[in-house]
């Protein structure tokens, strides 16, 4: 397995897609029940293959990621060749940007001396999706990039 198995909730959300996946392998609903009962290792393998296919599709589409922690925000833009980072760090330990109040403070005090903005860029490895998945595993979420776009304009990076 290249990525991670989908959760029970994710499988439930993708129930129809999983049925279609089994159908492409000529596995009927009755055959699937039989596989689950009599060949649990084969069933596990099918779940893993499906999970990897789903992850691959999601990661192929990913263009932006965000990761929030109490005093930092990491915004990523994924291009063909690079992973670009905008990092916002709040040096006031009383402010937690993961709360509505802390985020509002950041918005109102973006130019405050206790707020630092950093940018960085690195080349993506030969396995782009594995790079992205590693960030997702660390807590980043795939987004449309609105926040990255805001800071990109604010920092005149575009």
SSE arrangement:
Layout: H1 8-13, H2 15-24, H3 29-38, H4 40-61, E1 64-69, E2 72-78, E3 82-90, H5 100-108, E4 115-123, H6 128-137, E5 141-143, H7 146-154
Antiparallel strand pairs: 1-2, 1-5, 2-3, 3-4
Helix pairs in contact: 3-4, 4-6
Explain the overall architecture.
- The protein contains 7 helices and 5 strands.
- It has 158 residues and is of the alpha+beta class.
- It folds into 2 domains: 8-61; 64-154, no CATH class.
- Strands 4-3-2-1-5 form a 5-stranded antiparallel β-sheet, with helices on both faces.
- The longest helix is centred in the first third of the chain and has 22 residues, at 40-61.
- The two termini are 37 Å apart.
- The model has no long low-confidence stretch (mean pLDDT 92).
């Amino acid at each position: 397995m290249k990525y991670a198995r989908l959760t029970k909730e994710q499988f439930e959300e993708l129930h129809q897609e999983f049925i279609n996946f089994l159908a492409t392998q000529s596995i009927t609903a009755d055959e699937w029940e039989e596989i689950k009962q009599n060949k649990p290792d084969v069933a596990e393998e099918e779940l893993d293959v499906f999970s990897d296919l789903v992850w691959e599709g999601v990661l192929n589409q990913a263009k932006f990621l965000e990761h929030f922690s109490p005093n930092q925000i990491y915004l990523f833009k994924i291009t063909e060749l690079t992973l670009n980072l905008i990092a916002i760090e709040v040096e006031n330990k009383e402010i937690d940007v993961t709360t509505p109040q802390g985020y509002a403070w950041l918005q109102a005090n973006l130019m405050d001396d206790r707020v630092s903005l950093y940018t960085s860029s690195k080349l993506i490895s030969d396995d782009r999706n594995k790079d992205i998945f590693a960030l997702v595993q660390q807590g980043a979420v795939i987004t449309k990039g609105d926040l990255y776009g805001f800071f990109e304009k604010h920092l005149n990076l575009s």
